[in-house]
Amino acid sequence: MAGELSFTRVLIANRGEIARRIQRACRKLGLEAVAVFSEADRDTPFVAEADYAVCIGPAAPAESYLKVDAILEAARATGAGAIHPGYGFLSENAEFAARVEEAGLVFIGPSPEAIARMGSKIEAKATAEAAGVPVLPGYRGADQSDDRLLEEAQALGAPFLVKASAGGGGRGMRLVTDPGAAGEAIAAARAEAKGAFGDPTVFLERYAPRARHVEVQVLGDAYGHVLHLGDRDCSLQRNHQKLIEEAPAPDIPDALRSAMRDAAVRLARAIGYRSAGTVEYLYDPTRAEFYFLEMNTRLQVEHPVTEAITGIDLVEWQLRIARGEALGFAQEDVSFDGHAIEVRVAAENPAENFRPETGTITLWAPPGIVRLDSGVEEASVVGHHYDSMLAKLIVHGADRDEAIRKAVAALDEFAVGGVGVNLAFQRALITHPDFVAMAHYTASLAEMFPCGWTAPVPDDETRALAALALHLHLAPAPDTPWQSLAAWRLTEAAGRAGAACYWSDDADAPIRVAGQGARLKVILPDGTALGVEAARLTAQRLTGRMDGAPFTRRAHVLRSGDRWQVHLSAPEGMTMVPLRTLEDRHLQRASGAVGGADTVRAPMPGAVVEIRVAPGERVSKGKTLVVLEAMKLLQSLPAPVAGLVAEIYCAPGDTVAGGAPLVRLDPEDRT
Hints:
This is Biotin carboxylase N-terminal domain-containing protein. By secondary structure, the protein is α+β, with helices and mostly antiparallel strands.
């Protein structure tokens, strides 16, 4: 591919935040960007911001973002000369890269041969060994018979991992701690690998129980120049999915760090690698050793932290390399400045087993002091068809301590309404003593939160200030006819001071706000009265004095369905307090809105995968009734009560809306 190539228009075969990120790099180089989108993404920011946009199919990825022919046809129709795959979808599909080149287009990434070679974990480890890169002890042979695998498992000894050769993201992986369970684990890993990747090939390797995930960013051009851009730590993970990433990887001996970086460059050179890529390692601090895991032949989600400490735009250089430019700098020109942390913002509820969240974003108020790579904005619709990650928050500090402080400050300013997100959970992770002390590892989430994570509960002061913010938001301007001529609301009589009442979901008694003008009183449900002076709500800031102590909180008040949401910065981070006025309570009662404890409803839009009960069947409380798929995750919906299955309203394969009734029970206490 060496030599000058010419293209002025780039098709981005991806969506969301990474599509917008690539668009920014295209604009920087004076290139036009073509967006391809599914019907579900028609009104998204990345489509609106593209120079050209082409719909390539329905919402399902297999019918749109994974449809090679449709993508190539869109490139031909728009005159795009190159295709950038982003990450995920087709980014590490060697056949797709080959098809792009066969069509006379430039694939912005490595060669199809390099992708294929690193795509097989068995071949990748063999290539790494040949290049002098350490690998974990294990078995990666071609003989996949049960006898041979069990024999090798016995020789390796527990604990060890059974892993899919073609896999990723933890699929097709089983941990074996009891040698007697090896046969069952191998069979299960094979079956999952076959279903997920179409390839049942597995391999075995030693398990390092308290290892960290460390990776090295490499960059190569078409002329054989390869260098590294430092390392990253991605050890905070859930089910092998990264949560928080940072660069450089902290607490690694200098000699070992240099060995990691040099080994990554050797491997990239051995396969003639061009473009941006990442060599991933398992780092065992107890042995002071590192082992090759895999090579990602694409741009990584966490690439911004490397950009932050090096000042090098990775996507820009992907584009430059793809059009035939040589790297404009050498290894000695790469310097590393400070420390960077990336926090993934996802539409999920970590307090409820990371249940995906869907809906319309009614409030999107990120902090203005940090980099935010986002795929959404206010009024964006978050559906169930794709990954739950909405954005990435990136901070840069002089050192790790400063980066952590900046990340916490940014999370405390970030307010999102309409859709639940994981910001409070990420704040709990980044402030956890294990993370601060670098005592965490890839499987340490269970130790950090042994009973699971619970969302913080607002304290009395935060609840009081939330009610005060809503009161000020609803109050008319002072000295208006609405206060002097007639009752302006149900909660305040004309011509005299009244007391407005605000109910939270978990309290039987309201919070009352009494008084007028500069002096108010907030009365909590337990009767505690707090004096408030000079309270103001302006420019999303709530200020004043409470019992003589000044307060300043960032505050956003918005309507959501049948209630108000008050987003308020608090000691535990940005907190959302739902509140209802007296009018809302009256309307709720009048509408007969009650929660049906006998009906299982879809918690979000999704597809019905399985129904595990039949009409007339007696079920116990907690038994799984329906399995729903949303945002690539399976949700098991349990029976809320014991009883008989009265009606089933759905069938496998159905697409259902959020809140749709799925199964109705006749509770046991009525039967």
